[in-house]
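Ligand-bound model needed. adenosine monophosphate.
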Amino acid sequence: MFDKFKDECGVFGILNHPDAANLVYLGLYALQHRGQESAGIASVVPGTSTIYSEKDMGYVADIFSQERIKRLPGDTAVGHVRYSTAGGSMLCNAQPLVASTNKGPVAIAHNGNLVNGPDLRAQLEAEGAIFNTMSDTEAIVHLIARSKEPSLERALVQTLAQCRGAYSIALLTPRRIYVARDPYGFRPLVLGRLDGAIVVSSETCAFDLIGADLIREVRPGEVIAIEQQGDTAATMRVVHHSEGRREARCIFEHVYFARPDSIVFGNNVAEVRRRFGVQLAKEQPVEADVVIPVPDSGVFAATGYAQESGIPFQFGLVRNHYVGRTFIEPKQSIRHFGVKVKLNPVRDLVAGKRIVLIDDSIVRGTTSKKIVRMLKDFGAKEVHMRISSPPTTGPCFYGIDTPERRELIASDHSVEEIREYIEADSLGYLSEEGMLEAVRNGDDPSRLYCTACFSGRYPVLRDTIDREPAAVSEPTKA
Ligand code: AMP
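Prediction:
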């Protein structure tokens, strides 16, 4: 089970602010899209060695009451939001993980998956380590504790050198927050300033909410100590920087995962998605009356498609923003109930129309199939599905919750077969080259981004994954 365990997460931290826990709470609020299953905050009063921690299952807003935030004193705090695949959905796996080590107390918030997490764990368990969670983050804490390096700082650097895969980390100690990003830079992590405090976040949208200014990204391979002496403002000190590898920023952050108002890897997400749409219209044109996005995932790409093609954009599908995880279905079945409870067509914008329907990705194909059927039921004349990324052919081992390969419709079906399955009149995907062109910022993006879920080119692999036969197959072509 541990092998299949992966989670999507967001991290946030602040050092040297009297309202630390409250600001972390707000930061997590802005990062809620990165994980909706559990959330937690750990804080510390400078000069003391007690780490306070509050975490629970559920949404940030539901977990943290005023009373709970009051139980997190101090001017330094880190927080975490998390979503995990089946098996890992338990409070014990919620972060930050708090531990008392021979190098002092720590609380760690981690985004990303270590591809050698299971190997590290097996090795540590063989040496007698006891694990309380199922997450690979706990292996990091064990390695820090076991390191022969006397200082926590050196122990952290030594530990991270043993970790392979994706990690964007905020580690709270009684005097500092250490932040680190793996040498590939899979997951984002940015630094900002708010008055005399320094903040760290998975995404800049959280800075906007609390009024912090972006300083810069934590660079791939960098370990930074955020600290403060006397009455001065918080400062940053680069502790370590390992270079020399290609970067592998996750392209899926831009395709789907990150919030559109964030700047991720130096590009605004909404603008990148618009460019995906422009490129998609160039590569996959079609004669139609209206461009309709699947809300919210297809909205920005649809604006680009409409702009480039000259076909009018319409919000022809309306999303109910208050749908929980589950709902009670009526005894007598209602046609399309499952999808209609979330999305409903605007009949007047749909009936009799030739529609270009835009979404960011097709995973299993079930959502697209349901939406196409529903639009046809509402009188659409034609539905032409356009996807603002290439076919999703492989799972992610670096922190995006893509299902296993056999569940991905594009892993063993051609574009024509997928079109048939979703019952669309036509289906077109954005090419990998077109997608990468949209994130070009000077340097060759094919050397800067990870496109493994589309291309099968995994930048870092575990032996067992390496041996999986289809792991390096080319994306399906029609
Ligand atoms: P499916 O029905 O399995 O094909 O799912 C496709 C839908 O899932 C699209 O609307 C995507 O926006 C959305 N999607 C893609 N990746 C993810 C993810 N990692 N988590 C949640 N939803 C996703």
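Residues 464-478 have pLDDT under 50 and may be disordered.
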